Each structure stands twice: as structure tokens, then as C-alpha cells.
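Q: How do we represent a protein-ligand complex in a form that can be generated cell by cell?
A: Start from the inputs.
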Amino acid sequence: MKKIFTTLAAIALVLPMVAQPKLNKDNIDEVLAAMTLEEKATLVVGSGWGSMIAGITGGSQILVSGAAGTTQAIPRLGIPNTVLADGPAGLRINPTREGTTRTFYCTGFPVGTAIASSWDVELVENMTKAMGNEVLEYGVDVLLAPGMNIHRNPLCGRNFEYFSEDPVLSGKISAAYVKGVQSNGVGVSIKHFAGNNQETARDHNDAQISQRALREIYLKNFEIAVKDADPWTVMSSYNKINGKYTQQSYDLLTKALREDWGFKGIVMTDWGAKDGTVDAVKAGNDLMEPGMPFETQRIVDAVNNGTLDVKDLDRNVRRLLEFIVRTPRFNGYKYSDKPDLKAHAAAARAAATESMVLLKNDDNVLPLKDVKNIALFGATSVDFVAGGTGSGNVNKAYVVNMVQGLENAGFKLDESLKDYYKKYVDFARIDARDIPNGGSVGILLGEAKIAEAPVAKSFVESKVAANDAAIVIIGRNSGESEDRRVEDDFDLSAAERSLLTNVCNAFHLAGKKVIVVLNIGGVIETASWKALPDAILCAWQPGQEGGDAVADVLTGKVNPSGKLPMTFPVQFVDHKSSFNFPLGNEPTGKSDFSFIGDDTRNTVNHVDFTKYEEGIFVGYRWFETFGKEVSYPFGFGLSYTTFDYSKPTVTVAKDGTVTAKVIVTNTGKVAGKEAVGLYVSAPAGGLEKPAKELKAFAKTRLLAPGESQTLTFSVKAYDLASFNEQANRWETAAGTYTFGFGRNVRDIPVSFQAVIKNAATFAVSK
Ligand code: BGC
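Then emit the C-alpha cells for the protein with beta-D-glucopyranose bound:
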């Protein structure tokens, strides 16, 4: 490294004599031609962890405290640093800074899984417009989001950041997200490209995925986001796919991403250096983040010794320059450090309410009627989970918990329960700060969830007389570097189970209702206990306004219209991927793994690979095709009103483009919105297909009772294609397709059959 600095210093002394171009959007070629090899190698490697810039620019300065990384500046050519910061549920920077009493809080928006549950692209775009404004106003150029890996298995620790088990839902929600953030003139980095479907061994796991499953499931959502929304950047993942690190895969980063999909931006690595920097440059991974001096040196050496063609480097440098001229920092934007947090809080609350999923509502117990006094049970009532941990955490000014939310809405909460949980959580937090995930890291990256408090049956019973109803809240948190567990996480803990049973028994005996609120980031087991309460509302991790948002739905101020973006299985083992998903991950990376089911091939005590043996049968594609029971199907979600579907039609244009329409009518007593999925079953004869696949979706506006709206769906022949591995191309079979208009994947009230006359094939880059 020293060598580079010495060389650069020498250049700086000599070059001012020569005319030096200063970068602008029209002279990129000229600037590229003026760059030395060392400068080129510097530009494609970030300046290190955080946003401390040093090295080539001399001295050290923190650009935006708490940002994840920067690109390096080359002042003599007018190339500034640019700043990159997390993350998916809002900007993650440090809330306080040395030398000032001012604060730099960001809005904690609902997590990815929540907003995908809205099935509402307009809502997502509006919410991320507000999110992107914070990126701009805090001096950041790229938001490292959205996280959009497919929910392959419920235990992935980062599923809360991600959207869905279905690539079309994930892809369309991502595209809306990208458009919203980028409408501010800042960029995003869609991540983690690709196959990062688990946290166990995430830095080296080899995701062994068939070409077909890769194209149709794990890449498809990225393809949709790239084609629909033109993200400025893509983040390659830590893992390998089929033996190759994604950041070193020319097939992935150049052939698929650029040649097939037309991506025009830059690819950056996920945070950390790997061997093979030069291979990454060749593959089209333009930027190494956070960047280490030895990576720069490797690139310089490789060009000098002929193992790297400078043309490959130039190609990446050109893309970096094209990226830089788009950024606010390059364009001298004077950021305020004062985004309108109040307005953004309102956007977060609105998005949270639209994303909640009503799973059960016997006797229309919700919205709450004639309820004033509430017995609120569960440590999560105080220890509310706004969002997950790790880089997906947001440093928000406050979190409205359930106690505050219900009180703000005018309910009277049982004082002794309030007191009990507050004390329990305060003590447990002190304990938690002593564990590795707590302490200052805990504060910056979010804190681990506290276990449920023990509550005696007699204490529960003593709460019945004075209260009109009970609410039990169940919470979960998870995050980066660690997958979830089956015991006490996917499954309820013994304390939760006994709480739920005792509350339901005691309150039901007195004819009083019990509502369960799920404050979770991913799927939990529901089949064994869902008969107990009268209503279940899945609030997800709804962001900083969570308590108020839950109250909005419980009171009926907002009629819930969210639907599940994934299947809730009966048991964890029902997912096909559960047979090879690594269990027993330790946060320390210890290799004490065990596996369930009859697959013994992976039962080594170290995870090097994960065989995606289920192929394309991920999520509902598995449950529907093989007729498996589920607890709640993909797309499930109730409303306080009812909807009728009528007059389905499907027309097929000459080029195979399908236009499908259905009329949705609000047949109930209150206004509401309905999301409809277009589920397609293909004719026999082509490649083997899942029983049904979501190919498009739409949501009505708020329909008054009796009001109707026609929803229109458009599907291209290419969207119906499957990937033929032997022929290395996409194929759409001719024949009769069934287009089902579904409330969810299992409840399809109307459908329409239409013929695709001509088979079609679509080539991919060879
Ligand atoms: C995460 C990324 C994140 C990056 C920067 C990595 O550990 O996987 O999602 O953007 O850190 O914080």
C-alpha cells in the first residue's frame, strides 16, 4: 500500500503542470484516459469500514457518522467520495455525534416482510419516497437496500428484511421500493445478489441450486427489479452459488445481470474482502466494499504482471464514474441534516397499518366494540419489536410500544400488568446488555429479544373481572449472522404457550374475548394454538410507530388489507427446504450443526454447502403441487368487510401478452381494500410446472360498501416461461392456461381459461 501512496504523491506533485480534466457527466472518457493505474485501482476499492475517509485524500474525516462505507475521492480529477449506508427499514447512521448536541435520528419504517404484505406497490413507493428523502438530507448517496432474497425457509435470520417466498411479489415490491427511494436523486443497492437465503456460514456457504430454480426463483425477483426500476447499484452476496463466489461470477454479474437484463449501474461486494479480488474485477464486480488497501494492490499488481487486462479495469472504472456523476455529493447538493421526521413518521404509520394481516376474527370480535379496559399480556407489550437487528436496524428516536399505542387510542390498561412487564423488561435488559449481542453494539445494531415473562395462572385469573377483554402479544426478533431456531422461536416457548392457554381459559370462562397480536419478523408455528384465541392479528415488525399502528387496526380506524407474502406451514418440517436447511447455528460461527429429516449427507459438523434439493418447489409451489396441509396459505388475509369477485376475463394478444380482468365488489358493511393474486396453471406437455404460480397481482382502492372496481393484470408470454436447462433457454408452452383470481393461493373464487396459440422461446446469454 505504501507503494501506491508514494506513487500517488509523486503524481500529485508532477501532474498539476499538465492540464487536468475535472469530472463532469460529459467528459468521462477524458477523465478515464487521464487516470493512472493506481488511481483506477483506488476508485474500484472503497475507503474502509464506516465512512472515515483516509488514504489517498490525505488525513481523515468522517463523512456521515455511522454510514457503512464510501467510495474514494481523487481530488485532482474532481472525483469526490460518495457515501453508502444501510438499510432496508430506513437509513442507518449514528444518531449522535461528537462535538454537537444535535441528533441525527432516522425513521424506523416497517420491515420488508411487512411492506410486502401490503401487496400495494403504490403504498410502498410512497413510503420509500420518504425513506429516500432521509438518505438525501443526511448526505448519503446510496441506501444499501432493499434486501430481497427469497424466503426459502422460515428460519433465515434475515427474512424480516426480505419480501417473500414468491419472486413476482418480491420483484414488484422491490421495484416500487427502488423507484420511491431513487425519486429523491439518490441510489439504492438491491441485495444480496444472490442465493443468500441463510445466515449460517453466510460468508462461504455454497448454495447449490439448479439452473432452473436459480433463474425462476432466486434471480427472477432481481430481474424484475432491474428491468422495472433501474437500480443504481446491486450488492453481490457473501456466498457462493454452485462453487463460485457470486462476486466472482461472470455468468451472474455480466451475462445474466447486464447482457440478459440490461443492468446499467455498478455492482459492489457485500462488506468484507475475499481472496480473488482480481476475479471479481473480471466478473464485473465494479466496487470492493468496504475496501482494503491490499485489494488495491492486488489489482495494480495483476495489471502489471499481465493477469488482469486493463480493459476489464477500465470498464469497471467507467461505470464507477458514471455512477459518481449521478450522486448528490458530486452534484454539490447542500443537505440539511433535518429531514421532516414528523411527516415520515406518519408515512411509516400508514404503511404499517396497510401491511398488517388479520389471520382470524371469530364473531367479528375485531374491530373492538364495547371494550374500554384491557388486560395486555406479554413482555413484548413493553419490549416492542419495531424492526430486526444487524445492518437492518435503524437508530430511531423512539418506538411507540403497545402500551402507549393502546393508551393513545383511549383504552384503559390494567395497571398491575403494565407495571409487572415494565419491571421485568427493565431487569431483563440489564442482563441482556451483558451478553455479546447487547451493550453498545446492541444499541447500534438493535437488541436481542427478551424471553417471555412467567405469569402465574392465578395472576391471570385475577385480571378477568376488571377487564373487558385480553390482548396477548407474542414477539420475535432476529438478524444478521444467525439463523432462527425451531425451539422457542419458530415454535412457541413453554412460557408463551402457558400464558396463551391460561389467558384464553380464564377470559373465555367469563365470556370475554382474547386477541393475539403477533409482533414478528418471520413465520412462526400457529397450527397448534390458533384455535385458542378469538382473533389473531399479525402486525409484523411495523416500525417505530408500531403501537399506534396496531391500535389503528384493532379499533377499525384502518380496515386491515394485508395478506401473507409467504406460507405459514403446520410444522417447520413441512417445508421441503427444512430437510437441508442448517440448524443449530451459533452466533460465534461454531460448527455444532445438526440436521433433521432423513438427509444425512450434510450431517458433517460444518456447513460448507446447502443443497437446494427442492428445486423450484419453494414455499407455496411445494405445498400446492404436492397437496400438503398448511396453517395459513400464501396470500391469506381477512378484512372487516367481504369482497365478491365477478366477471373474470382473459384476452391474449397476437404476441402472447395476456390481459386479465376481474370485478371486485365490497359486499360488506365497512370500506376496505382487497388484494387479488393472478394464479396461473400451465397446460401439461411443457416442462414440469408447479400447480399454480403467482404471475401478477393488484389491489383495489378503498372501496365503500357496495362499490366495485375492475382490476387489470398484464402478463407477457415471457412471464409465463419456464427455464429449460438442457436447451439453456426460456420456454412458454402453447395450450390452455387457467388464470385464477385468488383471495389467496388456496381460495380462488373465479378463474378463466385462455389459449396461448404459439409456443415461444427466449434465449439467454451463452
Ligand atoms: C450486510 C449488508 C450490509 C453491509 C453494510 C453486511 O454485513 O450483509 O446487508 O449492507 O454489511 O453494513
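The radius of gyration is 26 Å. The first helix runs from residue 2 to 14.
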